[in-house]
Amino acid sequence: MAGSAELLERMLQGVFNEPDPRQRAAVIAEVFTDDVVFVDGERTVRGREELAATVTGLLAQGPGLVFTPAGPVRGVGDLGMRPWRLGPPGADPVLGGLDVVQVVDGRIARLWTVLDG
User: Which range is the signal sequence, renumbered to this chain (predicted)?
Assistant: First the structure.
């Protein structure tokens, strides 16, 4: 079973940094449970399809921006967390935050994104 460190890395690179919707959907199917719940400051979405649509919308808001890890994965029990930054490659970030995941049976069942500031 995958642990939170591996899942957070796959999520960042294969979902939030993946421009191709088909490839992104394939990684979502591997990494997230069918009934995943994603919560950020603006929305709560349920299920893989809603998650995919939300990520597509988020990526459209910042074309050319990439997510990069901003620290190590930390965790306890079935929870994992990792800070990240968003910005143009090689430039200062425009946004940062923290992802917190709950892992159930080797997949992310819950994802909370807390934005900095």
Answer: none
pLDDT above 90: residue 117: no
How far is the C-alpha of 93 from the C-alpha of 35, rounded, in Å? 32
Partnered with residue 53 across adjacent β-strands are: none
CATH of 4-115 among 3.40.50.150, 3.40.50.720, 2.40.128.50, 3.10.450.50 = 3.10.450.50
Quick: pLDDT tens for 9-27: 999 999 999 999 999 999 9
Phi and psi for 20 in degrees, rounded to 5? -85, 120
Judged by DSSP in three states, 53 sits in: helix
pLDDT at 1: 57
